[in-house]
Specification:
- It is a single chain.
- The protein is built from 4 helices and no strands.
- It is globular, with a radius of gyration of 16 Å.
- The longest helix has 23 residues, at 3-25.
- By secondary structure, it is mainly alpha-helical.
- The protein has helices spanning 3-25, 28-35, 62-68, 73-82.
- The N and C termini lie far apart (35 Å).
- The model has no long low-confidence stretch (mean pLDDT 87).
- It has one domain (3-82).
């Protein structure tokens, strides 16, 4: 296997990880947890203190996160009333 093949494969894995990270950042779940701390346009490390790390070998949706963390229907309704849905691009 050539070195070029390894670079292409690594680039594809890197792109997939970034896409999975972006899917997480775009969820209402992630943005709600940031909203709990963030009160300015600045985004220092502390605004992410309630945001749990995920496995970025998979794409994330609000539904998957709500299920993973046992979020109730009432809590989901509150989150979704506070944070607008982001368009996926």
């Amino acid at each position: 296997m050539s070195l070029r093949h390894y670079f292409v494969r690594a680039s594809a894995l890197y792109y997939k990880t970034l896409a999975d990270l972006l899917s997480y950042i775009q969820t209402r779940f992630f943005r709600f947890l940031v909203l709990l701390v963030k009160n300015t346009q600045d985004a220092p490390k502390k605004v992410y203190q309630f945001v749990p790390m995920q496995n970025f070998d998979e794409s994330w949706t609000d539904e998957k996160l709500y299920k993973k963390y046992g979020i109730t229907d009432e809590e989901i309704a509150f989150i979704e009333s506070m944070v607008r849905l982001m368009e996926q691009k």
